[in-house]
């Protein structure tokens, strides 16, 4: 940072307000705080690694006010932290080095006399120089104090000048020197389109924290208009390819205080919110996160998400929910990190309805600076976040890292998204719908004190891996009425449950995200209905796509039948393959729960080949399914089998997909 105030490049305050009067003459920044009595600081933001050598230097002059007022360098604190370090002088010829934490003051030196301080109207060069294990403090090139570096526990990257009391000063330059690694970015920077969203999405207020639904149809964001309702949640819907007029959401999502949407469920029926709410939903009561669900025609009162060993001493609590709903990436200050926010991972505990204790993403992702605004993309492994500690172009840049193992312990070295996305000011809150084409973010691009929403067309190298959006309706097979059913997705052949979603009772719709790389089986559960099973093979990676799969459930009654779509046999054989076991095990559980139920297992083949051999094969396959069920303890008298061969096709069999649908095993309920 080489700020000489000739063409200021960083986020220094120049706008006068009730706290201070500013004047900039093209060479010096002047700050007038005469007739004031309190402490005041103005600053830019640059993250200094406290473990490496650094040098901070400023040329300052007192121009107005009393001799007892002090001024100097302020450094090593965070936007949200009440702690800071200060090296100050006054015109009586004394200096002091101290830190503050709220109202608590820690003095590294008391007021000490220094002949180098020449009084009001003279320039004074203040220098803070860390070399190895010590920090040296100089006035006009003379070292006056040496303090162990371990006594300075940095809280962030705020850095600037501090004024105490009735005083006016001018600043000639402000320099920060520290060797940093080169920016890790794409070797060839692709062309990026970055557009500020128009009014009425962006206004004169600050717009923050955009969250786009996975289907790309809804945009939630926070607008900060000040006052008691400081930050409130708004939503805009996509209309003919453009964002419509946003609507401020009411109770219970917005309350007195700061309200933010942190994550959206894939079915758009679940919201993760910052903070925790009172039982009546009228107020915010603490840090952490809450969950609200769409119930009928309104959002439920948010309920606290229970996270084991949750700890956060930061004023902010940001998180991102994975598309599977099983992982959260959180930005926390826990006491175990370097003093600023780091990123942690928490896993859903299915059986206790709670979340595991936060586990650090470690030093590949986390740095000495703040890591904030995490977003885990729809693929479940591409993470975007904002950091001041990794080398970048401004005080907070956006980076991308990819999970390298299934357990989330290993991550790739973060990549800076580049100078066409990141600015010299603050950048964060990166969010991407499932299609991965356009990302949404926050930048202070036009004015360092004004945060607005932007959208960015991503190059391929910065996109997450493609996924598939599965959507459809769950309907009664007889009445076609919508049903509120649970749909489970599992990996085949082993049947490990991966995800679940519930259809809406109002219209039967469901929606879920599935990554490529798996052969998925899915089944539907609703009391009083037969469970429907099917599968979708996504092992071969392709581009993003949306697939519609409507599901029809038959009431549990005599004569009802269901296809065992996830039962597989070796080619031309009745040998049951391993991928069939999860499906057959569910049939076993159904027969155990209905102890008097009797069924017929029917085998079917396609039309090609010998009709006689097809009938024999279909009978053998039906008998093989019966044998599997009987060996689990089900009375064989409750199960009949019949091989229908190709006599009952359900499609014309013209394509391979249609022929595959004809090759099936079904069971029919004979009696209950």
UniProtKB/TrEMBL annotation:
UniProt KW keywords: Membrane
Domain spans labelled OmpA-like: 556-672
Protein name: OmpA family protein
SUPFAM superfamilies found in the cross-reference section: DPP6 N-terminal domain-like, OmpA-like
Taxonomic lineage of the native organism: Bacteria, Pseudomonadati, Bacteroidota, Cytophagia, Cytophagales
One matching Pfam family: OmpA
GO annotations of cellular component type: membrane
Organism domain of life: Bacteria
